[in-house]
Design a protein that fits this description.
The complex is a heterodimer of chains A (415) and B (368). Chain A has 19 helices and 8 strands. In chain A, the strands form 2 sheets. Chain A has a 4-stranded parallel sheet with strand order 2-1-3-4, sandwiched between helices. Chain A has a 4-stranded parallel sheet with strand order 6-5-7-8, with helices on both faces. In chain A, helix 4 packs antiparallel against helix 13, helix 8 runs parallel beside helix 9 and helix 10 packs across helix 15. The longest helix of chain A is centred in the middle third of the chain and has 24 residues. Chain A is globular and about 60 Å long. The model of chain A has no long low-confidence stretch (mean pLDDT 94). Chain B has 368 residues and is of the alpha/beta class. Chain B is 49% helix and 11% strand. In chain B, the strands form 2 sheets. A 4-stranded parallel sheet of chain B has the order 2-1-3-4, with helices on both faces. In chain B, helix 1 packs across helix 8, helix 3 runs parallel beside helix 4 and helix 5 packs across helix 10. The radius of gyration of chain B is 20 Å and the shape is globular. Classes of the chains: A alpha/beta (415), B alpha/beta (368). At the A-B interface, helix 9, helix 10, helix 17 and helix 18 of A face helix 4, helix 5 and helix 12 of B.
Chain lengths: 415, 368
């Protein structure tokens, strides 16, 4: 017990020490082959972001996944996404301790990404925020959870509150909110509002968008050139975290080049592809699990994932607030479920999908609440469908036996 | 004397005598941020969706980790329990409510359904945005039900709803008087009848009831005074249990309690008045700014001299579950203890809750 406490203290100290990240960077070249250059850029991006955040040379702003990161890069601040940190912590197998810590404060029925983030905050593992900005879009927790964190850190919290309807009045209201939001944020952070910087950031975001579009087109190839399990990790992670940064312009072209090589050589990521699956929901379990191995071993390719569906239009750098309002309100997971269904239909056709798995992450009401409707509708189209209950960051909610049984039955049903 | 049964008898007598009662055109609603005055101005009768707690069928359509109220509502709709409704109006209240709106449309095929946007932030922009939403709702109602909502009718509807609020405020002020004392649980039971009948009938019954009971001015001390906060309760079972255990519930900051009593100040534009009044009412946990909730609760606790707060959250209700530790911490600073209860949307609270409430009341007694 005493050793564990010392380890934790040591780990906390190391994590808070900016030089730790500087020290880790050269080791990356040894860790991954040249083939996986995009992955290495992602790791470098994360290490650099955390190094800068702990060094606190620029203001640190915590945001959630559906708040456009362009707003933070436009401010020349450092965005930190606690949800992504939780996914990483879970990936490293460390989430248990932080979840247990959080469970002394909040209900275990809440989203494990937030529970883990709260545990990390209570144990003082995260870089201190100067400001917390969150968007209430898609997730009720993104309002009250971030508000609670702002009380813990005694820093201001601002909420962007996108309307449900995609109506012209909603766009006007959203644009006005962003304008007020940035005005307030610059005052809190004592930063100048430089519109020319936002133009630059939106241009970068558009370029990254261009590469995402090309990647998504390449991924329509048969056999599937890129595993969806990775699409749900560093690919979507970069889409949430890096849009508007120079890192996005390094990452996405490299990922494109890697996938393009596989497509040209007609190499799928599986030796033999019998079925093509669509993964529904933005997330997957990040701790060690057998889901993707079971699918791969039976020739079931995870060809695409809803998380990487490119839903927003190209941004107009001369109108940053309007463009970002349009981006937010074009989110197909917001609004009536028909929007999400239209997007799924587009993916089904484009990626020649014959089966879909809806991963129902415990604690996520917005996505799981639509799982049955989507299933009934997909089954009418002859698409095999499985709702897989589980948890993305809490391994205690994962049962290998049950998961295997459900997956095996599903694969059998697909024929 | 059973005050609730006395009221119920008056209401039932009026119902049998009212020839228009059977001709009501009902429209369902789910959230107290909906200005019912708009429906009433369209000569529609609002019917509150407050179903019995069963979820057998709904379990197949919504995940196990879903709000029990949402599931119970879908269950009743799937079983045809709301087939008498001419339409249903939802609000953008929470993730659960948005998904209920989808499931209701997908599986129950209502002839009219609408989801009204509800901002979380309250400022001049959001009030304007909410008002624009109300204008759109009016347009949709007029189109579907083929009737015009005129300003005079809207004004009259606001005046009638203010009358209800005034009567209810007066009713709550009678708590603790009489022998036996008129309890908060009984008042909530009387209030629950409001959602099943048209407003004119309820107002009339409530006036007759208050004229019929003669309560002396003396307030009889009962036991530790507690306030209850949360989203909604299925009936008054929890409140009555607290009262049975010797506690006195002095205020209910609930969507099925006193959160609906804000008077609408009629300005030149009734929609402006409604937008301001509804967004400005005592905040639900889903709204932004926990501090506003904390300030409201502190003020209310002080006003009603409550010694403790019982914080009730429905299971899987994210806004209330996330907010609870912040509220508890803020009340601790001023020496008010809080009991957090996470419960089902069901009738009688279980033994575990009873024991915890009992222990909480003991602590309050000891604190004096």
């Amino acid at each position: 017990m005493a050793n564990k406490a010392i380890d934790l203290k040591f780990l906390r100290k190391m994590i808070h020490f900016p030089s730790t990240y500087q020290f880790l960077l050269p080791f990356l070249n040894l860790l991954h082959s040249k083939e996986n250059q995009a992955y290495r850029v992602w790791v470098r991006f994360l290490l650099s972001t955390f190094r800068d955040a702990y060094a606190h040379q620029k203001p640190v702003v915590w945001i959630n996944s559906f708040l456009p990161s362009e707003l933070i890069y436009g401010l020349d601040a450092i965005p930190i996404l606690p949800e992504i940190v939780s996914a990483l912590v879970s990936y490293l197998g460390w989430s248990g301790r932080f979840l247990s810590r959080a469970d002394t404060s909040i209900s275990t029925d809440l989203c494990s990404f937030y529970r883990c983030a709260l545990g990390l905050a209570l144990e003082d593992f995260l870089p201190r925020p100067d400001l917390i900005l969150s968007s209430s879009q898609l997730c009720d927790g993104a309002n009250k959870f971030f508000n609670y964190l702002s009380r813990l850190y005694q820093c201001p919290h601002l909420l962007l509150d996108p309307p449900y309807s995609d109506h012209p009045r909603s766009h006007r209201y959203m644009e006005g909110q962003i304008e007020d939001f940035m005005d307030e944020a610059t005052k809190i952070l004592s930063l100048p509002l430089r519109i020319e910087r936002f133009r630059l950031v939106l241009n970068r975001s558009n370029q990254a968008r261009h590469w995402i579009k090309k990647i998504n087109q390449l991924r329509q190839s048969i056999p599937s050139p890129f595993p969806g399990s990775e699409g749900l990790s560093y690919f979507s992670g970069m889409t949430f975290h890096s849009m508007g940064s120079p890192w996005a312009l390094r990452f996405f072209p490299l990922l494109y080049a890697e996938i393009e090589r596989k497509v040209f050589s007609k190499k799928g990521y599986l030796p033999e592809e019998k079925h093509r699956l669509l993964w529904l929901h933005h997330v997957r379990p990040y701790y060690k699990n057998e889901i993707f191995n079971i699918l791969s071993s039976r020739g079931v390719a995870l060809s695409f994932e809803e998380a990487n569906y490119l839903y927003w239009p190209s941004l107009d750098p001369s109108k940053p607030w309007k463009s970002l309002a349009d981006k937010i309100l074009s989110n197909v997971w917001a609004g009536p479920i028909e929007r999400r269904m239209r997007a799924i239909e587009e993916m089904r056709v484009a990626y020649s999908i014959d089966g879909a798995i809806h991963f129902s992450h415990w604690g996520c009401r917005q996505s799981c609440g639509g799982a049955a409707i989507i299933g009934d509708w997909l089954k009418e189209k002859g698409i095999s469908y499985l709702i897989l209950f589980g948890d993305c960051a809490d391994p205690n909610n994962y049962s290998l036996g049950q998961t295997r049984t459900r997956l095996e039955a599903f694969i059998e049903m697909m024929g | 004397m059973n005050y609730y049964l006395t009221f119920k008898k008056i209401l039932d007598d009026l119902k049998t005598k009212d020839p228009l009662c059977a001709k009501n055109q009902w429209v369902g609603w789910t959230c107290t941020y909906l200005p019912l005055e708009i429906l009433e101005a369209a000569h529609l009768t609002p019917f509150r969706i407050l179903p019995e707690a069963t979820t057998e069928k709904a379990d197949s359509y919504l995940d196990p980790n879903f709000c029990p109220f949402i599931k119970a509502a879908l269950e009743k709709a799937l079983s045809g329990g709301y087939s008498f409704l001419s339409g249903i109006i939802f609000l953008n209240t929470c993730d659960g409510m948005r998904r209920l709106f989808d499931a209701w449309r997908f599986y129950c095929k209502p002839t009219f359904s609408y989801l009204l946007d509800l901002p979380r932030v309250i400022d001049s922009h959001s009030i304007t945005f909410f008002k624009e939403g109300l204008e759109d709702l009016i347009k949709q109602l007029e189109g579907h039900f083929r009737r015009k909502i005129i300003e005079d009718d809207l004004r009259m509807a606001v005046e009638r709803s203010n009358k209800t609020r005034e009567l209810l405020i007066k009713l709550f002020s009678l708590q603790g008087r009489g022998d036996p004392p008129f309890t908060h649980g009984e008042i909530l039971d009387i209030l629950s009848e409001r959602w099943k009948v048209g407003r004119p009938l309820f107002n009339q019954a409530l006036e007759l009831f208050m004229n019929s009971i003669k309560l002396d001015q003396k307030i009889y001390p009962v036991g530790p005074k507690v306030m209850i906060t949360g989203s909604l309760l299925d009936g008054s079972d929890l409140v009555r249990m607290i009262e049975e255990l010797g506690g006195e519930v002095v205020a209910s900051d609930l969507c099925t309690g006193q959160r609906i009593l804000n008077i609408v100040n009629l300005d030149s534009d009734p929609l402006d008045s409604l937008s301001q009044a509804y967004l400005g009412k005592p905040p639900c946990g889903r709204m932004y700014d926990t501090q506003r909730r904390i300030d409201f609760l502190k003020q209310k606790l002080l006003e009603c001299k409550a010694q403790g707060l019982i914080y009730f959250s429905l299971k899987f209700c994210d806004p209330y579950l996330y907010e609870a530790p912040a509220i508890e911490g803020a009340l601790k600073e001023i020496g008010i203890p809080m009991l957090f209860i996470e419960g089902e949307y069901s009738g009688k609270p279980g033994g575990g809750i009873r024991t915890r409430v009992q222990a909480f009341l003991e602590v309050l007694r000891e604190n004096g």
